[in-house]
Amino acid sequence: MHRLQPFFVAIVGALTVSVTAASATMTMQLELAQIVAAADRAFVGRVVSVHSDRDRAGIPSTWVTFAVDQVMKWTVGSELTIKQFGTATRLDDGSLLRLPGLPTYAIGDEMVVFLRGESEAGFSSPIGLAQGKFPIVRHAGDAMVAATAENAKALRTLRRFAKPSPHAGAIEIPLNEFLDQIGQLVAQSAQP
Q1: Is residue 5, in this structure, part of any structural domain at all?
Q2: Higher-scoring residue by pLDDT: 188, 21
Q3: Are residues 67 and 85 in contact, defined by beta-carbon separation less than 8 angstroms?
Q4: Which end of the chain is more exposed for a tag (fewer CB within 10 A), N or C?
Q5: Which domain holds residue 59?
């Protein structure tokens, strides 16, 4: 394994450079209906743990554990851990594998997440990279889904529900309205 490690690092480095150069022009912006239809799992949750290390194959990975508050698609327990390719922070050995477009997570973050199924190696990530992660913000007790640069197109169709935001130019949709729309889209995507 140790003789293959420099080769593996070179391949991953080359792929990272390729992805970095192409990511700005090759990530297709998705509509909300596309995100919902493509998701294997969807839920409202809060990040309770984030840990980066190498997986059993030696690949830099990040494990994110969510406390699940509400399931919208598929079956998810009260807690869910995903393994995402790459790391947002340096590992103990000094290595860093940050991929443009992949979302980052912090303990305490609340969000609505639309996930792909797991790969053969156990990796999963939100649909459309960070497009499938919708942060929840709270103002005076009201839960709102906030638009980000990555998911703004998906939220455009819900502008009629937008409420004034304390942040100039920000799009925020009441969480209950967002979840109602998701419920309708899940039902539509289940129809033949």
Answers
A1: no
A2: 188
A3: no
A4: C
A5: 29-190
Identify whether the C-beta of residue 133 lies closer than 8 Å to the C-beta of residue 151. Answer: yes
Residue 126: φ, ψ to 5°: -65, 155
Instruction: Kindly report the backbone phi and psi dihedral angles of residue 40, in degrees, each rounded to the nearest multiple of 5, phi listed first.
Output: -85, -30
Model confidence at 136: pLDDT above 80: yes
Domain with 174 in it: what CATH number? 2.40.50.120
Residue 37 lies in a domain: yes
| Segment 76-105 mean pLDDT | 93
The answer to whether position 108 is within a domain reads: yes
DSSP codes joined into one string, 86-140: S-SS--TTS-----TT-----TT-EEEEEEPPP-TTSB--BTTGGGGEEEEEEET
Q: How many domains does the chain have?
A: 1
Q: Are strands 172-174 and 142-146 parallel, antiparallel or unpaired?
A: antiparallel
The CA distance from 57 to 61, in Å, is 10
CB 18 within 8 A of CB 26: no
Indicate the SS3 state at residue 166: coil
Neighbours of 86 (CB within 10 A): 21
Residue 59 lies in a domain: yes
